[in-house]
Every structure is written in C-alpha cells, then in structure tokens.
C-alpha cells in the first residue's frame, strides 16, 4: 500500500465527521492561517499543512514543562515527518503481534481497553509485570523500522550521536475513542527511581493528561486505574489554553463525594497535552514517582492511534 493510500486507510472515518476527528472534537480545518493546535499534524485525519513545505526542514518545536521537584516532561510536536509517520503506523498496525490481555485491577479481572505488545532488545532482561499481567517479550530485532525509530529517538534525546540506552518498548494501539489508558505511573521497580520514557504518537490525536499523585498516602486518585473520564469536568469548563498550546488547569471545585478517600479537597495540579501524529513526548526525573498520566476515552477520536514508549529496564532490577 502506498503511503498516501495507507493514510487514506487510517483516515477512513474522516468523512463521517468532516474536520472534527481531533481527539477534542475541534475542527482542524481553519481557512487561512492556522491559529490552533492543528497546524500540520494530520493525526485523526486532517490535511498535512506545514510539513516540509518547499523542501524546508520541519520545524521541531519543543516544549519543556517543569513539573517541579525534579519532574519534567518535554514535548516535540514535529519529531517525525507526516508521511514517515503514516508509513510507520501502517507497518505497525499490520506487523506487530497485538493482543488485548486480561488484567487484574483491584482484585477484578478486566480486559485491557487497548491492544498492546511488548518488545525488548534482549531476552535476558527482567520480566515486566503490570496489573497482574506479564506480557510476552518479543525481540525488537524482527522489526527493522522500529530499530530505525529507536535510533531517531535516541539521537533526539541524547543529542547527536548520544545513546540513551533504551532496551524495551511498549506499544499501545487505540482502535478508536473507546480505547484508553487510565491513570497510572510507569513506576515499576525494573525501571529504577527516575526512568526516562520516550513516547512517540502516531495516528489519531489524543489528549494526554498528567496529574500529581496524592502525596498524603501516595496512592492513585479516587478512580479505578482504567476509568478516569468521569472525575474530570468537561474540557470546555476545565481547559485554559495558554500561548504554547499546552493546556493547564486546576480543579475549580472540590470533588463532591462523601467517601473520605475521595474527598481530599486539595487542588491537584494537572496538565493536558494534545499528542499529535508524529510527536515525541519525554517524561523524565521523578515524573513516574510523583505524577500519574492517562489517555482517556474520547468520543470524537474515530481512528486508530499507535503509541510507542521506549524505556530502559535496569539489568539488575529483578
Ligand atoms: O498512549 C499514550 O500516550 C500513553 C501510554 C502509556 O502511558 C503507557 O504505555 O504506559
Ligand atoms: Fe504510562
């Protein structure tokens, strides 16, 4: 399949809701100069304005968000070219051995609300276990496009020839707006106390939320890890767009609940980023120790999104 036909394939739902299948449902078809966030991503089925026009190099915008106390995220919106991204999306969609495992969450079994696959550089790494599930670790040597992506990610983060030393990769496939990942932190011991996680997004734009953990008991917020949307007020009431397209908001009201475990009354710091097709998000420092993140359900996310998170498993962490 050519790259343009593959792009059409992933944009097949576009006709259903013309110009509104960004994750937030906002129209991405501005006539004239774009002033919103959709100026070249194409994720979710918008045109590819801004991609290397006239042979110009892609602008690699960077956003560094200091979360405080040694936590930091960095967002690079145009990490890879649009066509390059669509080709990789198509390749991964058809070549990766996806599965949708059963997890155990708070003693309950539930089917993971997205497809995933775990790839590693070596079979001798300690096993990954999350939510009572230990995924099969496939070797990433069988997927040359992923090795090329790894190289690109390492160069972007490590600078020039620098090697970061990622040795594992977790892929998630969200087949539509009902697929999601609930509040969690990638704080498994095998990644060490300050993991560097590089997250590449392909396909449909989706919102990525960050919120500070509840320090008092260091437990997740009052939602099941895979069910988050209901505690957040509607985006229109909640999100305040700042000049750098990053949404920052705080709860305006106390959460209404008689349950003492949910009625903390503290205002949690939160951030939301729209993860675009071809973007790179890096989480570093104590982000996994002190913050939770999620990609909630979105009714308007009509097409497939694939997310890749490169991580480093510490060899002696078993
Ligand atoms: O899909 C995303 O952007 C996030 C995925 C994620 O948080 C994870 O795999 O741990
Ligand atoms: Fe995560």
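^ Assign residues to that structure.
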């Amino acid at each position: 399949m050519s790259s343009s036909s593959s792009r059409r394939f992933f944009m097949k739902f576009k006709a259903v809701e013309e110009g509104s299948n960004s994750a937030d449902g906002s129209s991405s078809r501005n006539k004239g100069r774009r002033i919103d966030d959709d100026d070249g991503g194409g994720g979710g089925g918008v045109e590819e304005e801004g991609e290397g026009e006239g042979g110009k190099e892609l602008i690699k915008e960077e956003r560094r968000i200091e979360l405080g106390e040694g936590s930091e995220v960095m967002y690079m919106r145009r990490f890879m070219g649009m066509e390059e991204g669509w080709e990789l999306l198509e390749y991964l969609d058809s070549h990766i051995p996806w599965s949708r495992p059963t997890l155990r969450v708070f003693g309950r079994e539930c089917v993971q609300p997205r497809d995933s696959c775990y790839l590693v550089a070596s079979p001798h790494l300690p096993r990954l276990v999350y939510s009572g599930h230990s995924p099969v670790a496939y070797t990433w040597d069988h997927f040359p496009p992923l090795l090329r992506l790894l190289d690109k990610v390492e160069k972007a983060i490590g600078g020039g020839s620098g090697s970061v030393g990622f040795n594992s990769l977790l892929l998630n496939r969200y087949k539509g707006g009902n697929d999601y990942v609930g509040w969690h932190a990638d704080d498994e011991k095998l990644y060490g106390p300050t993991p560097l996680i590089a997250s590449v997004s392909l396909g449909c734009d989706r919102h990525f939320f960050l919120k500070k953990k509840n320090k008092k008991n260091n437990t997740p917020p009052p939602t099941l890890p895979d069910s988050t949307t209901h505690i957040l007020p509607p985006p229109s009431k909640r999100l305040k767009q700042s000049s750098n397209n990053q949404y920052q908001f705080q709860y305006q009201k106390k959460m209404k609940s008689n349950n003492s475990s949910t009625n903390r009354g503290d205002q949690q710091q939160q951030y939301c980023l729209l993860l675009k097709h071809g973007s790179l998000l890096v989480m570093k420092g104590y982000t996994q120790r002190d913050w939770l993140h999620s990609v909630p359900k979105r009714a308007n996310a009509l097409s497939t999104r694939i997310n890749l998170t490169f991580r480093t498993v510490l060899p002696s962490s078993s």
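The CA atoms of residues 66 and 72 lie 5 Å apart.
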